[in-house]
Amino acid sequence: MKLITAIIKPFKLDTVRAALDGVGVQGLTVTDVKGFGRQKGHTELYRGAEYLVDFLPKIKIEVAVSDADLDPAVEAIANAARTGKIGDGKIFVQELTRVIRIRTGEQDADALSN
User: Fold this and answer.
1) pTM for this one?
2) Degrees, nearest 5: CA angle 43-6-107
């Protein structure tokens, strides 16, 4: 089992969600986050004064998948989130050692399935 964490541009959320649904991934967690990478933020003008905005708005998506679903899910996220411009984001994959569905007590692969 794997945990996929993707940091993407906010306007790509619906596209990524549809792409994940298309490969059979049904559950995901979405969080509004702020950060920067190579973009290093940008400058804005407010009441005549220019200031640096270090952290840019991003969306963090977390998806738990079986090992068999990993590659299709990662490919779906990458293709749907890609604009070809700086700041498209990153995808991180981590090992999950245990998953428990709270309602039923199902564990591991059983907890990930419907």
Assistant:
1) 0.85
2) 150
